[in-house]
Amino acid sequence: MKFFVINLALVDWLNENYWWPVILFLVALVVIIKLVVMQPKVKKQVTTVEKSEVVIEFLGGIANINKASLDGNRIKFQVKDIDIVRLEGFKELGASGIFVSGNNVKMVLPFSAQMTVDKINSNIIGG
Fold first, then answer.
1. How many domains would you assign to the chain?
2. Which 3 state secondary structure label does DSSP give 93?
3. 91-123 burial, b for 16+ CB within 10 Å, e for fewer?
4. Is 61 helix (H, G, I), strand (E, B) or coil?
5. Are residues 52 and 114 in the same domain?
6. pLDDT tens digits, the chain, 127 residues: what are they?
7. The domain containing residue 14 runs over which residues?
8. Strand 74-79 vs strand 104-108: parallel, antiparallel, or unpaired?
9. How far apart are CA 105 and CA 78, in angstroms?
10. Residue 43 lies in a domain
């Protein structure tokens, strides 16, 4: 019986105070606006084939690449001339852990690199 009395008191208070739905609406509106603003920007979706072409371009073209291989999650490229490799392009592409040693470039790409490695190696062989 005590719960019923408290419940009635709450209902009476809500009926007497007309401003609470306005505040509730404003809070909900602020939350919705925050969610919309905080959504990540959708980048143009690029297929893996296009990404492979971009990777080859950043490496200085297929003529500059000696070999491509996977080393765990990292992709490793052996290039002829390291000076024409555009490392900034890889950073813009989202690559992380870029490591340059001699004519070797290692990095972790934000997409599956197996297709890129296969494409590069088949082009080098002449396929």
1. 2
2. helix
3. eebebeeeeeeeeebbbbbebebeebbebbeee
4. coil
5. yes
6. 555 556 777 777 777 887 878 888 999 999 999 988 887 766 555 566 788 888 889 999 988 999 999 988 889 999 999 999 998 988 888 888 899 999 999 999 888 788 888 888 888 877 5
7. 2-38
8. antiparallel
9. 7
10. no
Q: What is the pTM of this model?
A: 0.59
Contact 53, 76 (CB under 8 A): no
Q: Are residues 57 and 27 in the same domain?
A: no
E strand intervals along 8-119? 65-71, 74-79, 96-101, 104-108
**78 shares its domain with 111:** yes
Q: Hey, is 67 helix, strand or coil?
A: strand
Predicted pLDDT of residue 6: 63
CATH number for the domain including 89? 3.30.1360.60
Q: Are residues 88 and 59 in the same domain?
A: yes
For residue 108, what are the β-bridge partners? 96
How many alpha carbons lie under 13 Å from residue 1 in its C-beta half-sphere? 0
